Known about the structure:
Strand order of the largest sheet: 3-8-9-10
Structural class: alpha+beta
Largest sheet: 4 strands, mixed
Shape: globular
Number of strands: 10
Order of helices and strands: EEHEEEEEEEHE
Mean pLDDT: 89
Low-confidence stretches: none
Amino acid sequence: MSRNKYHNRKTVVDGITFDSKGEANRYGELKLLQQAGVISDLVLQPKYVLQPKFRYNGKGIQAITWTADFEYTEDGVRITEDFKGYGTAEFKLRLKMFKYKYPNKTLRITRAR
């Protein structure tokens, strides 16, 4: 498996490639929680538009998006979850934008134990 600049090791589980072993492990935990009925409607890689595309001085500017790791329902609440081993400046900025654009979403950041 390949490594990236943060020394994460891409890991494949159920034919799905995860960015890190920790994220793959969290997927396994969430699968078990879903099987036990603790959570439901598990979705991988939900994508959010933080700023739509637009035109500026006649040029197209790409949308700013963020793809979380997981989304699921727990106790009737829809949870958006991201697994982070290391929070980059880019992630912190996108996280602020997500909180601004989606203030009613419940966000959970999980980390390696």
